[in-house]
Design brief:
Rossmann fold; 6-stranded parallel sheet; homodimer; 3-stranded mixed sheet; alpha/beta
């Protein structure tokens, strides 16, 4: 493939940033890739494993002269990092991010950025239960959607260039408006994650069911909940705090529905249960027909060809 | 392997029974295997695909002379089927079942059985989202647990023979008391399934998030919920109606916990969320250390080597 950016800076060196580095190298998409992480230990690991062509000692140093700067830090610190790098940004550079929520990130980051850069938020719908600089791999984004969330009046050339980078890294891309993104993700990701965390917490509390039993028999349905519940706590705390309204709205609807089903169980209303379970089959058929499932359901977590 | 039973009768010819047939043939574990299904269409499909050595026109005919009779029908009809076959059971035969709940099945089946047979309930923790006579495959039980639930004063020889059959079909086996089984399954399977059904129902209701979006971006976490929610409605209706108390108890604990997390989100109590998400990591580590997970998390649904 052809090079899309001469200089790319990755701020934050966790799962997504490290996967982006290996994916950009696989595709020959970037010239020099610089990186910075807050923790000295992470920077040392990065140098040790060859993650980034140059690991810098400050975010400002990393973004100097970069044509693309990607903020790969938890949503909660995006604003602070944007303020820190703003003075060092090269005129004409594109700034992007990989946050799981978009409205809050835009509100936190945009005000700090100078007029001479383009801000093009993005969100790759890919991850694993692992985190840190050693967790990345080049195939993470293959056949997965990356949502591009351009702001009003965004420079189309900048948007299309970033889109080309993500496609070069293997992703399918779509453009979406920020608030709609946050609602769609609340349904397809954020609420399911909170629900999985909750179910694992319940199992962990139940002393009559020993951990070893919950663990041994987890394949009966519980196991994937635990995979989700092993995701990075800081990332998910920030997701829920920053997509609060949409998540609470979906969870509200969820508890309403759950109560209706609990009531049907209590009242032994088999017809209600059967009708409900029959209806939910349709959406599954839709996913299969859309070619969006494989034999390895994985909460978007396992690398594979789609 | 060596033959364990001369004559086995499978009552009901869905996913579990058809997988048992192919697994018994793979292992050479049974002489003649007879089968019966209520629906003529199912019986015709079975004959067409060679499912069972002999497909019978009645349950009584199928169990005649059988050394092992396995009830593979929905939990809600186990009692009626037991009453129907009781007079035809061969003295010394073992009667078993594959129901996902055990106390209700024992209460429904045991009273109908003559003293001259041994009743040894069992539950294979394996399945797929598919159902019907064409859905079975020999590897379904490989490396999966099958729980054997002997009654008080059960004949040990009968218990050990059935255990040997399940091990011959590839399963790991454990013995468990009925009520404890129902509680463990409520935690590891029944509650997670109801929760997944609920989340899919919510997504299906949300008109602002089009089905196509929910489907396209399902890999972000939602997809496995839909896999579960495609499971057989009749089977699951009966599971919830027949494991009512344990399921409602777990769901009650679940909603308590969920409300606490919703409140933490509303109050923006990041420390509570972070502490909770950190705690749930431990149980996941336990599952990995116990060798009970693979790269294909599947709600116990996809055939594979463990």
């Amino acid at each position: 493939m052809t090079q899309i950016y001469d200089r790319v800076a990755l701020i934050g060196l966790g799962l997504i940033a490290s996967s982006m580095f290996w994916a950009m190298k696989r595709g020959g998409l970037a010239g020099e890739v610089t990186g910075f992480a807050r923790s000295a230990e992470t920077r040392n690991v990065a140098r040790e494993i060859g993650l980034c062509d140059r690991v810098c000692e400050s975010a400002a140093e990393a973004v100097e002269g970069a044509d693309l700067v990607v903020l790969c830090v938890p949503v909660g610190v995006m604003g602070a990092v944007a303020a820190e790098i703003a003075p060092a940004l090269k005129p004409g550079a594109t700034v992007s991010d990989v946050g799981s929520v978009k409205r809050a990130v835009i509100d936190a980051v945009a005000p700090h950025l100078p007029d001479h850069v383009d801000f093009v938020p993005a969100h790759p719908l890919a991850g694993t239960e692992h985190s840190g600089p050693r967790s990345g791999f080049a195939e993470l984004f293959d056949y997965r959607f990356t949502l591009i969330v351009p702001q009003e009046g965004a420079d189309r050339a900048a948007v299309e260039r970033l889109t080309a980078l993500w496609q070069g890294m293997g992703a399918l891309t779509e453009e979406m408006e920020a608030d709609h993104h946050d609602l769609v993700l609340a349904v397809t990701s954020h609420a399911p994650h909170l629900i999985a965390y909750t179910m694992v917490g319940v199992a962990d509390d139940l002393r009559r069911v020993t951990d070893s039993e919950v663990i041994k028999y987890s394949a009966a349905g519980f196991r994937d909940f635990t995979r989700i519940a092993a995701s990075d706590p800081t990332m998910w705390r920030d997701v829920f705090l920053n997509n609060k309204d949409a998540t609470l709205e979906i969870l509200g609807r969820f508890t309403e529905e759950l109560f209706a089903l609990q009531r049907a169980i209590r009242m032994e209303d088999g017809d209600h249960l059967h009708a409900y379970f029959t209806r939910t089959r349709a959406i599954r058929r839709g996913i299969i027909e859309a070619g969006q499932d494989t034999d390895a359901p994985d909460f978007g977590r396992v690398k594979k060809g789609g």
